[in-house]
């Protein structure tokens, strides 16, 4: 992960913990039982992933909004509108049960990656941004896929 500043890399990796924990507690009945008794059922399996995924998509909208402040006047409206899409996606598309919510979160994070790429191509994101976002998105999508495909 050369070129990614240490703080964003470490914080980004730490931000994966709820997704990884959710996948692990989905796959392991022992972890699921321990997590349910110690943390409560909301903090295991797909439930922690869905709640946290909603938060992260909303957070990432804020990050994109920050990048939008760097846009040229003619492009500013477009990038501001695009920056709120992940938060709106999380709000409107994560109901209907854990499987459909996880599928929609997967699409949300893949769509976010496309927005990240666009913002990077427009010179609004740091040069290291896409290396970090590719890594984090890969792990998030794999973790969410556990509850959908297994």
TrEMBL record:
Keyword Glycosyltransferase: no
UniProt keyword annotation of Transmembrane present: yes
InterPro entries from the UniProt entry: DUF3429
Source organism, top-level taxon: Bacteria
Transmembrane segments annotated in the record for this chain: 7-27, 47-67, 79-96, 102-125, 132-149
Keywords recorded for this protein, A-Z: Membrane, Transmembrane, Transmembrane helix
Signal peptide, first to last residue: none
Protein name (record): DUF3429 domain-containing protein
